[in-house]
Design goal:
Shape: globular
CATH superfamily: NAD(P)-binding Rossmann-like Domain
Distance between the termini: 51 Å
Number of domains: 1
Low-confidence stretches: none
Number of helices: 9
Structural class: alpha/beta
Order of helices and strands: EHEHEHEEHEHEEHHEHH
Helix content: 40-55%
Strand content: 5-15%
Length: about 280
């Protein structure tokens, strides 16, 4: 990673809890610089108090265009550059597909998708001028696998994954690396305070999506994934000369994603002849 003498500058969203908080803590502990953001700036005080001028706390709701512009401007004014953008802000919404509420679905996409898109667009001119940078999008195992009860959340993460493929193709030649991180179950607030649910009332879903909604709340605080270890893995991506496009985190996530992709490939290959037969015959 090319930086000036003060070390890399990170801009991290969603730093009040979970991955964002642990990542900000780890970055600052290395003596690097960071713009740490949250919807409630007051919750960031303990993160930055020992870092002095190396840390900048900024209020940022990624669904607010004015706050996005202000955050990027503040980062540039303080540090003169942005080396790593971590799009971490987001949350889960669980419901059956049939019972999903329009307001909640759109709010999910405003944060997880459109806010991420908008912040990245705001940062790209800086990284293009530098001809360097890392854009790290915190996706999910749900970016590959649509689990029952989490269809709209999965849709938001699938959107980020496809968009990131296109972004990587566009900015890779400019020296900017794009990485999606796909955590499985980690001990964050995702399944606790941050989770939104529309309770299923349709009996036909009681033992499928309904059961998963009930189980998700119960595992909060007992997930196997360690956010502090995840933060170290994310930092390592920026220090590698050829980082991957995808990094799945956690054993459960790894098995879920690899198993799903193998199954998908097997199915597609089994229907190869039908796929090819849809072309015009060769003349």
């Amino acid at each position: 990673m090319m930086t000036n003498n003060g070390g890399p500058v990170w801009l991290i969203t969603g730093c009040s809890t979970g991955f964002g908080r642990e990542l900000a803590r780890a970055v600052l502990a290395r003596g690097w610089r960071a713009v740490v953001t949250a919807r409630e700036k007051a919750r960031l005080g303990d993160l930055i108090e020992a870092a002095g001028e190396r840390a900048l706390a900024v209020q940022l709701d990624v669904t607010d265009a004015d706050q996005i512009d202000a955050a990027v401007q503040a980062a540039q004014e303080r540090f003169g550059r942005i080396d790593v953008l971590v799009n971490n802000a987001g949350y889960g919404y669980q419901t059956t597909i049939e019972e999903g509420e329009e307001k909640e679905i759109r709010a999910q996409f405003d944060t997880n998708v459109f806010g991420l898109f908008a912040l990245t667009r705001a940062v790209l001119p800086i990284m293009r001028a530098q001809r360097s940078g890392h854009i790290i999008n915190i996706s999910s195992v749900a970016g590959f696998v649509g689990f029952q009860g989490s269809g709209y959340y999965a849709a938001s993460k699938h959107a980020v994954e496809g968009w990131s493929d296109a972004l990587a193709a566009e900015v890779g030649p400019l020296g900017i690396k794009v990485i999606c991180v796909e955590p499985g179950p980690f001990r964050t607030d995702w399944a606790g305070r941050s989770l939104k649910q529309t309770t299923s009332k349709i009996a036909d879903y009681t033992e499928t999506a309904g059961a998963r909604l009930r189980a998700t709340r119960k595992i909060s605080g007992n997930q196997p994934g360690d956010p502090a270890r995840a933060a170290e893995s994310i930092i390592a991506l920026t220090e590698h000369p050829r980082p991957p496009r995808h990094l799945v985190l956690g054993a459960i996530g790894f098995e879920a994603v690899t198993g799903h992709l193998r199954g998908t490939l097997t199915e597609i290959e089994a229907w190869r002849e039908t796929s090819i037969a849809a072309d015009f015959p060769e003349s």
